[in-house]
Amino acid sequence: MDPRYDIPRRAAGGGGGGSANSSPALGAQSRRRKMPPRPADFKLQIIIIGSRGVGKTSLMERFTDDTFCEACKSTVGVDFKIKTVELRGKKIRLQIWDTAGQERFNSITSAYYRGAKGIVLVYDITKQETFEDLPKWMKMIDKYASEEAELLLVGNKLDCETDRIISRQQGERFASRISGMRFCEASAKDNFNVDEIFLKLVDDILSKDEVDELRAEMEEVRDSYLEEEVYQVQELRRELDRSNKNCRILQYRLRKAEQKSLRVAQTGHVDGELLRSLEQDLKVAKDVSVRLHNELEIVEDKRSRAEDENELLRQKIIEVEIAKQALANELERTKEVRE
């Protein structure tokens, strides 16, 4: 047997050599376990796509390992790396998928679009054909990715500025035609804008999730409230119908009693007790009907106010999204001025 794989077994007496003489304090210390790391608050999947040779693997490795390889081999199928980041006071575990750019691998890589919360589409600023391939990659996104995925267009190899073919304005124009797509340029070799690419994408995902969560919570509360109110309204209407029916019955009985009383009056004998009883029943029924009418109006007024409040919440969400977009645009302009 190869001695490299020869693992010594623990002695039968409950410890190895010298363990019998070890102090209890040392034994307790050896049994003491390390505190487990705090679990991630979010787990997000990001996929990097683009034509062959644009630097997808280099961007991923620069972000996850802070390394760069000049002679990087082409990815076969898919590869991935894990990195945990802290953002907004949250611990986020990122699973970053690097996909092959060759068309023959499309059937394999397409499966990884579906679970992606963020998609980084990369082209090489020194190669015209990689930019012309962007519509093809957008078709893949439209076909396989979720409509909720955040999109980021990256012009890579900014370190080759002297060989640039695709201008920054061309990249910006392409991104502006895609709803919700952001744009930036980067260099994996010089480690320029690499962290910003992924962290900004994660921030956008979290922002969108927060807005979506707020919207879903608002709709859930509204639906629950409306269901309860509809049930109460229906119940009140049923009670009102019953009360109105009782009123009609009592009115009919009162008229019959009055007719009987008139007939009996001709003989000098009037059943006044029956008449008073029926009048009292009718008064009670009318009071119940009025009360139910008032309660019904109150409930319907509450429902109307709730709908108004929900509309205000929707407007606030829209205002938050507009403000977020304006802030992002301002940050982009500030970054351009610095450059």
TrEMBL record:
Substrates-to-products reaction catalysed: GTP + H2O = GDP + phosphate + H(+)
Compartments it resides in: Cytoplasmic vesicle, Autophagosome; Golgi apparatus membrane; Lysosome membrane; Recycling endosome membrane
GO molecular function: G protein activity; GTP binding; metal ion binding
Gene3D superfamilies named among the record's database cross-references: P-loop containing nucleotide triphosphate hydrolases
Membrane-protein topology: Lipid-anchor
One Pfam family from the record: Ras
Keyword Cytoplasm: no
One BP annotation, GO: protein transport
Gene Ontology CC: autophagosome; Golgi membrane; lysosomal membrane; recycling endosome membrane
Keywords in alphabetical order: Autophagy, Coiled coil, Cytoplasmic vesicle, Endosome, Golgi apparatus, GTP-binding, Hydrolase, Lipoprotein, Lysosome, Magnesium, Membrane, Metal-binding, Nucleotide-binding, Phosphoprotein, Prenylation, Protein transport, Transport
Taxonomic superkingdom: Eukaryota
EC nos: 3.6.5.2
Class of this enzyme: hydrolase
InterPro entries with a match to the protein in the record: MTCL1-3, P-loop_NTPase, Small_GTP-bd, Small_GTPase
UniProt region (Disordered), positions on chain: 1-37
Cofactor(s) this protein cannot do without: Mg(2+)
Coiled-coil residue windows: 208-337
Signal peptide per UniProt: none
SUPFAM superfamilies linked to this entry: P-loop containing nucleoside triphosphate hydrolases
Record-stated family: Belongs to the small GTPase superfamily. Rab family.
Protein name: Ras-related protein Rab-12
Source species: Pundamilia nyererei
Phylogenetic lineage: Eukaryota, Metazoa, Chordata, Craniata, Vertebrata
